[in-house]
């Protein structure tokens, strides 16, 4: 006996033919553009993507300065033709310039100016001699080794010129980029806002971790896992409470989020079950349910919800299926929203540690660990656990997915396969 409210919605949305992984990824990404641009304080832009070209407002270095603690020497005192024959040279010390200090006057031949690293060198400086190559005098200084012309002088603008574009739109803000932005005087920068992703688990059997289980109940693993994957990929995860299998419950739970979410991720309720709230609620609301020729992750859904057209991806409920589907479909979508190029993800070629079999007609993504290559060699990929999509224990031991193409049903040990990395580079 069917429970009320389900039958029609489910049977109306039964999927037809299977899509390829690429077809489904293209469908999920279709119409999705980089997120809105906002201005952020530079330290808060770490990990985000620049939405503007950045031109420098200053020269770097900003002025000619010393690369060493030592003495600025006049060009005429360097004896560039035969410096070894000229030493020792004794010069009158006419100035003492710390970093942040300003030279009193231009340097003239026969005099030296004591300078610290980063201090401006006086006009007329031909080179700087490090203090170790002198007697360190403060009134007069004996120079034991004459530097080559221009030695240890950092010239104004040799690194960055005023007006030069130093960073282009699309650049990821790394710590070094934070350094450059700050160094050229930028306190704020325009970036693509990180996507706000609502993560929602569905299923009458689900109980949050930390609460006791009743008969036939399990803890919600997908919600926290997908939220963590979103954060790792650069999104802002908003975890919504578990939605029970009651018609209307999912739409009601999503409604408050449709005003500001950039993406909705649900898990479970997309296969052929009689009480699948995801299909029941979303099939008539702009979401398409399909089969994709992959394992795990066959049942999938995607579409847009609400007046703002918020993208929604409905992932299958088995934890490994949800995880694999996240990496194959959602990670590229998050990259697109962040303003990054969306590709299939970081893939390396590796040799199988053991033989395997695979179902015909479905691309298989097997949980695995990548073992680094000996110098210059090929890395090895070792499977963890079996292909069962309920195997959460093995999933947590994996750091990669070994990809077996649709038309391959068996591979010997040593065969080369593509391996999609799920750890390391988070995006
Ligand atoms: N008759 C058919 N049955 C199934 C098919 C099919 O083609 N015909 N496909 C199977 C495949 S493949 C998959 S994958 C699953 C996907 O099912 P759903 O997305 O509808 O998910 P549920 O049935 O609700 O749950 C599946 C499984 O996962 C557990 N689960 C769900 N949510 C969570 C969570 N948040 N944390 C931990 N575990 C969760 C749930 O208890 C089930 O055991 O359908 C097959 N069936
Ligand atoms: O497609 Mo399911 O995800 O194989 O278990």
TrEMBL record:
This protein's UniProt keywords: Magnesium, Metal-binding, Molybdenum, Molybdenum cofactor biosynthesis, Transferase
GO MF annotation list: metal ion binding; molybdopterin molybdotransferase activity
Class of the enzyme per the UniProt entry, highest EC level: transferase
Residues covered by the MoaB/Mog domain: 198-336
EC number: 2.10.1.1
GO biological process: Mo-molybdopterin cofactor biosynthetic process
Required cofactor(s): Mg(2+)
InterPro entries in alphabetical order: MoaB/Mog-like_dom_sf, MoaB/Mog_dom, MoeA-like, MoeA_C_domain_IV, MoeA_C_domain_IV_sf, MoeA_linker/N, MoeA_linker/N_sf
Pathway annotation: Cofactor biosynthesis; molybdopterin biosynthesis
Reactions accelerated catalytically: adenylyl-molybdopterin + molybdate = Mo-molybdopterin + AMP + H(+)
Assigned GO CC terms: cytosol
Superkingdom: Bacteria
Annotated NCBIfam families: Glp_gephyrin
Function field: Catalyzes the insertion of molybdate into adenylated molybdopterin with the concomitant release of AMP.
Family: Belongs to the MoeA family.
UniProt xrefs under PANTHER family: GEPHYRIN, MOLYBDOPTERIN BIOSYNTHESIS PROTEIN
Name assigned to this protein: Molybdopterin molybdenumtransferase
Organism of derivation: Cellulomonas hominis
